[in-house]
Design a protein that fits this description.
By secondary structure, the protein is an alpha+beta fold. It has one domain (25-84, 136-305, 353-502): Outer membrane efflux proteins (OEP). It is 56% helix and 10% strand. The protein has helices at 42-54, 56-77, 97-104, 138-204, 210-225, 227-244, 253-256, 277-280, 282-303, 351-419, 425-459, 475-484, and strands spanning 25-26, 83-94, 119-132, 269-270, 308-320, 336-345. The strands form two sheets. It has a four-stranded antiparallel beta sheet, with no helix packed on it. The longest helix is centred in the last third of the chain and has 69 residues, at 351-419. The radius of gyration is 38 Å and the shape is elongated. The two termini are 25 Å apart.
Length: 513
């Protein structure tokens, strides 16, 4: 076949992660089919399951795979006789009288002539076919391109699934984090309300100033004012989660009531090695498959530089009522008209245009190769960024937990000393503000730890494996499409996970993922 065979370009892949020596990371290779179960949260498990079943963006990606299957069928159809037609017609002819006069001549010397128009019916029926022989492999290259495009579309589906599972987990974590921060704010508001009551009583007995009362009320109102923005965050995360579940924004109280608290990450995370990204991350696979599809298009374009060999043939029965003939004679064997033989077509006068088209295809291929290499680099950076964010958030949480303990002790001491008249009320206010700030920071950081772990799994390309053995399009959508259009066998589940050695012969030399 004319044109280049696709080969995976060299890519820069690190031997190990920068944080691989951290005891909290395990570099053993692993799959992440159900990575969200690492949080041991049944509500999260249910939400991911429902999103996989009902998310509309994922359904759209599944239908795109069906579209790519149909486009592959179009490309394969070009390998067989391209024109296969049954023809038939019944036509009435009346020739011009002037044409008759011109054809048979008139009397000389300007004399008049007598002529009449020729009138007759003609009918024909038959078949004709034309088959362009794939002498240079141009059509097979086009099939290669369509197959690689199909696999690229499937990789895009997997990428959508990876993003979906991560988005569900992140929104769920955002909800739980907001709930925890609201709980902390309300708990502190209750404690501050008690301090306000104590201060107000002391003011009435003359042992405290009005300034102390107003300061206590100020800090209480400020804490209460921090709750509405947190409730807004919680509601917005619930709305986003509802859409991911394929439903309008709704109250998820019944669903979220089964668990509480921010999902906790496991003590150790399996991250594998950077080279695993080449087969696991769907966007990396998609980028390479797009390059493979474009590589085959170079061969398609080069085929236009060479002669096209075809076989043409037709068998047509023709009849007319002209003269002694009759239209009913059309079905006699003697009325047949046969045409058969090879033909050649060679675009020899527009070589410059065709050559420039080859160059265009080659330049697009080179761009996609570079895009693939850049995707690999970006994928490694994505993992590294999430790893360092996850680990440093854990370090921060350990320090903040100690800080919260100290802040609680400091507040208890300040309140006791204030009651005994040893210290002023400003010390109590400072201790209250410090405790609330540290508790809120700890809750946010714990949420960041869980979100960081989700980011790691997303960056590693985990989660798409759950579609293996499953249909990409729900039965109800298939039934609707089948009622509207005859899809034949294209709606049947397909095995997209064949190794390269078992792929059709026309498939380009794709890597075995």
């Amino acid at each position: 076949m004319i044109g280049p065979d696709y080969k995976r370009p060299a890519v820069a892949v690190s031997d190990s992660w920068l944080e691989s020596k951290d005891r909290r990371l395990n570099v053993d290779s692993a799959t992440y089919r159900n990575w969200w179960t690492a949080f041991d949260d049944p509500v999260l498990n249910y939400l991911v399951e429902q999103a996989y079943r009902d998310n509309l963006t994922l359904r759209q990606a599944g239908v795109r795979v069906l579209q790519a299957r149909a486009q592959l069928g179009i490309a394969i159809g070009d390998f067989f006789p391209q024109t296969q037609q049954a023809i038939g017609s019944v036509e009435y002819f009346r020739t011009s009288e002037r044409a008759e006069t011109a054809a048979f001549g008139g009397s000389g010397g300007g004399g008049s002539s007598s002529s009449s128009a020729l009138k007759f019916w003609q009918s024909q029926i038959g078949v004709q076919a034309s088959w362009e022989l794939d002498f240079w492999g141009r059509i097979r290259r086009n099939i290669q391109s369509a197959e690689a495009s199909l696999l690229s579309t499937l990789a895009d589906y997997d990428s959508t699934l990876v993003t979906l599972t991560a988005d569900v987990a992140n929104n769920y974590i955002a909800i739980r984090t907001a709930e925890e921060r609201i709980r902390i704010a309300r708990e502190n508001a209750d404690a501050q309300d008690q301090i306000l009551k104590i201060t107000d009583a002391r003011f009435r007995f003359g042992t405290a100033t009005q300034r102390d009362v107003e300061q206590a009320r100020t800090i209480l109102l400020n804490t209460q004012a921090s709750i509405p923005p947190l409730e807004t965050q919680r509601r917005q995360a619930q709305d986003a989660l509802s859409v991911l579940l394929g439903t309008p924004p709704s109250d998820l109280s019944d669903v979220l009531a089964g668990s509480s608290g921010i999902p906790a990450s496991p003590p150790q995370v399996v991250v594998g090695i950077p080279a695993d990204l080449l087969r696991r991350r769907p966007d990396v696979r998609s980028a390479e498959l797009q390059a493979a599809a474009q590589s085959a298009q170079i061969g398609v374009a080069k085929g236009d530089l060479l002669p096209i060999f075809s076989l043409n043939g037709s068998l047509i029965f023709v009849a007319t009522d002209l003269g002694k003939f009759r239209l009913s004679d059309m079905f006699r064997w003697g009325s047949r008209s046969i045409q058969a033989g090879p033909s050649v077509q060679w675009n020899i006068l527009n070589y410059g245009q065709i050559t420039n088209n080859v160059r265009v295809q080659d330049a697009q291929f080179q761009q996609l190769l570079i895009a693939y290499q850049n995707t690999v680099l970006s994928a490694q950076r994505d993992v590294e960024d999430n790893l360092v964010a996850f680990l440093r958030a854990q370090d921060r949480a350990e320090l903040l937990a100690q800080s919260v303990t100290s802040a609680k002790i400091a507040l208890d001491v300040a309140v006791m000393q204030y009651r005994e008249g040893v210290t002023d009320f400003t010390t109590v206010l400072t201790a209250q503000n410090t405790l609330l700030a540290q508790q809120d920071s700890l809750a946010s950081t714990v949420g960041n730890i869980s979100s960081g772990l989700v980011g790691i799994y997303r960056a590693l390309g985990g989660g798409w494996e759950i579609r293996e053995g499953q249909d990409l399009v729900p039965p109800e959508i298939k039934a609707e499409m089948q009622r509207r259009t005859n899809w034949g066998g294209l709606l049947a589940p397909a095995n997209y996970n064949l190794p390269a050695s078992r792929q059709p012969r026309s498939t380009p030399r794709l890597p075995d993922w």
